Amino acid sequence: MTDYPCLPGIKFTDDDVVNIDDFDAYNGNRVWIFHDHGSVIGVVIMPDLQDALDELADSGKLDHLGVKQELVTFDEKDQCYRGPDGEDLSLLGNAGEPFDIDCLGIYELPMPKMSLVALLHHTD
């Protein structure tokens, strides 16, 4: 694991990156680091937050924050979905499954510039 000066206390490895194949600094992507009180849940490369959350949900890394469908109600007045304790829920992923993501911390970073020299330097 590596420390990153711009993210004190946050550590992650390539295994935490949900969609490493989308590493492309030239298409407007951003790096989204999702954590729960400093413990990294996942890292996603996407242009916007909604797509990053959907990708994270589809990867299974948010399963521990999922809410069973039978416990979800729709609040007509506020036009939102609520969990069993009245908490707001987010519908995420391709299936639009309910998640309680209030505990989720998010860091947004620009994509690092690609460097062939740096990549070749770190190859075996």
The count of domains is 1
Rg over CA atoms, rounded to whole Å, is 17 Å
What is the count of β-strands? 9
Largest sheet: 3 strands, antiparallel
In summary, what is this structure?
This protein is an alpha+beta fold and 124 residues long. It contains 2 helices and 9 strands; from the N terminus they run ββββαβββββα.
What would you say this structure looks like, in words?
The protein is an alpha+beta fold. It has one domain. The protein contains two helices and nine strands. The chain has helices spanning 49-59, 116-121, and strands spanning 2-4, 7-12, 30-36, 39-46, 73-75, 80-82, 90-92, 97-99, 105-110. The strands form four sheets. The protein has a three-stranded antiparallel sheet, with helices on one face. A two-stranded antiparallel ribbon has the order 1-2. Strands 5-6 form a two-stranded antiparallel ribbon. The longest helix is centred in the middle third of the chain and has 11 residues, at 49-59. It is elongated and about 55 Å long. The two termini are 19 Å apart. 21% of the residues are buried.
Summarize this structure as a short list of keywords or feature phrases:
124 residues, alpha+beta, three-stranded antiparallel sheet, 2 helices, 9 strands, 34% strand
What order do the helices and strands come in, and which of them pair?
Layout: E1 2-4, E2 7-12, E3 30-36, E4 39-46, H1 49-59, E5 73-75, E6 80-82, E7 90-92, E8 97-99, E9 105-110, H2 116-121
Antiparallel strand pairs: 1-2, 3-4, 3-9, 5-6, 7-8
